[in-house]
Amino acid sequence: MDFWFSEQQTPDVKLSIRVDKQLYSSQSDFQRIDIFESPEFGRFLTLDGYMMLTEKDEFIYHEMITHVPLAVHPYVRDVLVIGAGDGGVIRELARYPEIQHIDMVEIDRQVVEVCKTYLPKTACCLDDPRLTITYEDGLKFIRRCHNCYDLIIVDSTDPFGPGEGLFTREFYGNCYKALRDDGIMINQHESPFYAQDATACQRAHARIVASFPVSRVYQAHIPTYPSGHWLFGFASKKYHPLKDLDAARWDARGLNCQYYTTTLHRGAFYLPAYVEELLKNVETEY
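The structure corresponding to this sequence follows.
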């Protein structure tokens, strides 16, 4: 008998993946956590029935949320990561020797422990000596931060449940205050394709535009996320993601990536017409 994991991406669309076995299932204080093993995507993590990552395509998300700002900002010393309990963002940040300190704020300790056990390729750098993990609501944590960070990466779940507060105007305003004068904030921006996701995308973009002088959106293709077309937000107090890209400096690092390149970096900010229209409709309000 075949066993399948199915995620309801819209009322009329499901993603289904055949699974060999379920490796873990538990209800934490915040959400249901499941780990499955599949022949096509390897192991994958779901929270409350929604796909968070698979071993096969997680590199796309983690490279694009991490390397884009680091190819722009000339010297990142202190980083705040909100969410990211699977460890993928930390793995990519750990490749930069000039980073001196990383604060990771994750609301659910159980997610971190499960990923350490079942997704070691992703969670392989959670013991980096530069990393401090705080188990707390990111919205509460950032209220206490002022002029602390060069880079903030918001690796949140979708804008409902435990991650809902990380899509508010208050939160983005607090991120602005927590950044230094040339700081950058990156967030996962949802998909523009399905109507409900597109509305969430517009709402987040409108709130970021209201908080930051530089606000741009870029894209990546992630097969297991709704529609496969995924957006990220680049918000900055100073740097422009294209005008201030230092491709020669980043290329000289010799980092071996599977998805990100500085050439792709440029192309990722050139959005399809329907996405440009989607974002322009809310930008005109500010």
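The CA atoms of residues 83 and 106 lie 5 Å apart.
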